TrEMBL record:
Superkingdom per UniProt: Bacteria
Span of domain Starch synthase catalytic: 4-258
Protein name: starch synthase
GO biological process: glycogen biosynthetic process
GO molecular function, one term: alpha-1,4-glucan glucosyltransferase (ADP-glucose donor) activity
One GO CC annotation: cytosol
EC id: 2.4.1.21
UniProt keyword annotations, A-Z: Glycosyltransferase, Transferase
Catalysis performed (reactions): [(1->4)-alpha-D-glucosyl](n) + ADP-alpha-D-glucose = [(1->4)-alpha-D-glucosyl](n+1) + ADP + H(+)
Organism: Zunongwangia pacifica
PANTHER family assigned to the protein according to its UniProt record, in alphabetical order: ALPHA AMYLASE DOMAIN-CONTAINING PROTEIN, GRANULE-BOUND STARCH SYNTHASE 1, CHLOROPLASTIC/AMYLOPLASTIC
Residues of the Glycosyl transferase family domain: 348-491
C-alpha cells in the first residue's frame, strides 16, 4: 500500500472550498487512488472558516519571521466518504478568507501580497505536519499550483525539513498565468521577511523578468521530481513564448519548462471527468432554478449592489417558465480574460451571436462572477439584449440544470490548460463550440463530437468564432440527423480518471498502477 499527501488551495470534496477546476481535481484524483487500495491525505487551508465544527488533530509549532508560530490541523468531514481518504484543513489567524470564493485575495495594488503570506504559513505548517508524521510515512507528496510550491523551498533549503528530501514530490500546474511573484526582501510579504534564518540561493529562485523577485510557479517547476500539466496539448503550448492574444504559451516560464522537459520531468496528462456519483439536476427545471436562485440572492445583503440587475434578469426568465426557447446556448465560467477575452475586446462579435440566436428564437445563458470589468460589460449587454440571460452569481442547482438542458455549450477560452466544462457538457450529450487551444484540442473533435474555431490572427479568430456559430445554428435547424450524430458521439466519449490516474502512477509517481 502506498501513502499520498495532496497539498492544494482548494478541495471540492469538502463544502465551500472551491473557486475553480482545481477543486474538482483535488476531489476526484484521491478517490481514484483510493480505489487502487492506496491511502490519501488531502490538506488545504482553513481560510478562518473551514475548521469550525471539525475534529482537532494537533497543534503545529514552527518558526517564521524569527517568531514562534502555532497553527492547528483539523480533520474535516467530506461531502461523501471514501475509504482510505482523509481530509484536513490548517488554521492560523493570518490564513484569512479572500474575496474570491472566500479563498483568494485580489490585491490590485500589490499582486499576491495577502495570498503569499497565507500560503507561506500554510506550507510551513504542512511541512511541520509531515515532520511529526501526522500523515504517517509518505511515499508521494503531490503539490498543486504556486500556492503549494513553498513546500519545495523548505525541502531544498530549510534545515528543519530535510525529512522532505526522502519523499517523491510532484508539482501540478493548473493555471500557469497565476505565478505568485513576490519580492525577495524589503517587504512584509517577502521571502526574506518570513524566512530570515534560511540560507537560500537567489539565482535558483529568481524570476527571469523581475530579478528582485521570487517566482513561486517557477520554484515548483525547477525543484519538483516531476512537473505535470493537465493536458498533452497544453504541455506543448507552454514550451513556446506567449504572443498574446494570438497565442498564449509559457507566460515567461517557457525556459524553465523546456529545461524540465529535457530532463524528462515534464509530463502532460489529460484531466479526467467524473462519470459516477454525479449530482444530477431534475429535467425541465432550468428556468425555475434560475428564478429561485435570484429570489434567494435578492435577500442577501452582499448582493445589494446587484439587486436591480438581478431583478431585471428574473423578469427576463419568467416567460420561459411557460414557453421554452427553440435553442439554448450556455457558458459557465469565472469572468476572466482567460475565459471571455474575445467578448471583452470584441463585444460587437458577441452581439452578432446574440442577434443570430434571436432570429431562431434562441437564447444565451451565461453564469459566472469574476473581474468587475467583465461583470459590468455583461450586465450592460444583458440590459440591451432580451435573449441574453446573464446570471451574475453561483448556484449548483442552476449550473447542473444548464449542463443538462443546453443545446450548445460555448467555450471561447483564450487559453485552456484542460477545461472541465466541455467534458461536463459532453457527458450530457451536448456538443461544444470551443477555441482551438490547450486541453480543448484534446477533448473536442471538429464535426465529430463538437465544433472548433481558430485563426492565424486575432481578427480571423473572432470572425471564425461568429461564422462557426452560424454553422452550428444551421446544422441544428437544417440537418437534424448530423446534429444527433454529433450529440451521440459527444455522449459516448469518456475522459476517465481511471486512465489519467494510471498515467499518474506510471509517469509521475513512478509506482506500479
Amino acid at each position: 500500500m502506498h501513502n499520498f499527501l495532496f497539498v492544494a488551495s482548494e478541495n471540492d470534496a469538502i463544502p465551500h472550498c472551491k473557486a475553480g477546476g482545481m477543486g474538482d481535481v483535488i476531489r476526484d484524483v484521491p478517490r481514484q487512488i483510493s480505489q487502487k487500495g492506496d491511502t490519501v491525505h488531502v490538506v488545504v487551508p482553513s481560510y478562518s472558516r473551514l475548521h469550525q465544527n471539525a475534529k482537532f488533530i494537533s497543534n503545529l509549532s514552527f518558526k517564521l519571521r524569527g517568531l514562534d508560530y502555532l497553527a492547528e490541523i483539523y480533520e474535516v468531514q467530506p461531502k461523501k466518504d471514501f475509504p482510505g481518504i482523509t481530509h484536513y484543513v490548517i488554521h492560523h489567524p493570518e490564513i484569512e478568507a479572500g474575496d474570491i470564493a472566500h479563498i483568494y485575495h485580489n490585491d490590485l495594488n500589490e499582486p499576491f501580497y495577502t495570498d503569499a503570506i497565507k500560503y507561506f504559513i500554510f506550507c510551513t505548517a504542512v511541512a511541520q505536519a509531515v515532520k511529526i508524521k501526522i500523515f504517517g510515512d509518505l511515499d508521494v507528496i503531490h503539490l498543486h499550483d504556486w500556492h503549494a510550491s513553498m513546500v519545495l523551498f523548505l525541502r531544498r533549503y530549510h534545515k528543519d525539513y530535510t525529512c522532505l528530501q526522502d519523499i517523491r514530490v510532484i508539482y501540478s500546474i493548473h493555471n500557469l498565468a497565476i505565478q505568485g511573484i513576490r519580492p525577495f526582501e524589503n517587504n512584509y510579504s517577502s521571502v526574506r521577511n518570513f524566512f530570515p534564518e534560511v540560507d537560500f540561493n537567489y539565482d535558483e529562485l529568481r524570476d527571469r523578468r523581475y530579478h528582485d523577485c521570487i517566482n513561486m510557479m517557477a520554484l515548483g517547476i525547477r525543484f519538483a521530481d516531476a512537473v505535470h500539466t493537465v493536458s498533452p496539448s497544453y504541455k506543448n503550448d507552454v514550451l513556446y513564448p506567449s504572443n498574446p492574444p494570438e497565442f498564449i504559451g509559457g507566460e515567461g516560464l517557457e525556459e524553465d519548462l523546456n529545461q524540465a522537459d529535457r530532463e524528462g520531468r515534464f509530463i502532460g496528462i489529460l484531466n479526467g471527468c467524473n462519470y459516477r456519483n454525479i449530482r444530477r439536476a431534475r429535467k425541465n427545471n432550468l428556468y425555475f432554478n434560475i428564478a429561485s436562485a435570484i429570489f434567494k440572492w435578492l435577500q442577501q445583503e452582499s448582493k445589494k449592489y446587484k439587486s436591480d440587475f438581478l431583478a431585471h434578469t428574473g423578469e427576463k426568465v419568467m416567460p420561459y417558465l411557460k414557453r421554452k426557447p427553440d435553442f439554448v446556448c450556455s457558458s459557465v465560467a469565472r469572468l476572466t480574460e482567460q475565459k471571455f477575452y474575445f467578448f471583452k475586446r470584441s463585444p460587437e462579435a458577441f452581439l452578432e451571436i446574440l442577434d443570430l440566436l434571436a432570429e431562431v428564437n434562441g437564447i444565451f445563458i451565461l453564469l459566472g462572477t469574476g473581474a468587475p470589468e467583465y461583470e459590468e460589460l455583461l450586465r450592460k449587454i444583458s440590459h440591451e439584449k432580451k435573449n441574453f440571460l446573464f446570471i451574475n452569481g453561483q448556484s449548483e442547482d442552476v449550473i447542473d440544470s444548464i449542463y443538462l438542458e443546453t443545446n450548445l455549450y460555448f467555450m471561447p477560452s483564450l487559453f485552456e490548460p484542460c477545461g472541465i466544462s466541455q467534458m461536463l457538457a459532453m457527458r450530457n450529450g451536448h456538443p461544444c463550440l470551443v477555441h482551438h487551444t490547450g486541453g480543448l484540442i484534446d477533448t473536442v473533435k471538429h464535426l465529430e463530437t463538437g465544433f472548433v474555431f481558430d485563426g492565424n490572427s486575432y481578427d480571423k479568430k473572432v470572425r471564425n468564432m461568429v461564422d462557426s456559430f452560424k454553422h452550428v445554428l444551421n446544422m441544428f435547424f437544417e440537418d437534424k440527423a448530423k446534429w444527433r450524430k454529433i450529440e451521440q458521439n459527444a455522449k459516448k466519449v469518456r475522459f476517465t480518471w481511471e486512465k489519467s490516474v494510471d498515467d499518474y502512477y506510471k509517469s509521475l509517481y513512478k509506482l506500479p498502477a
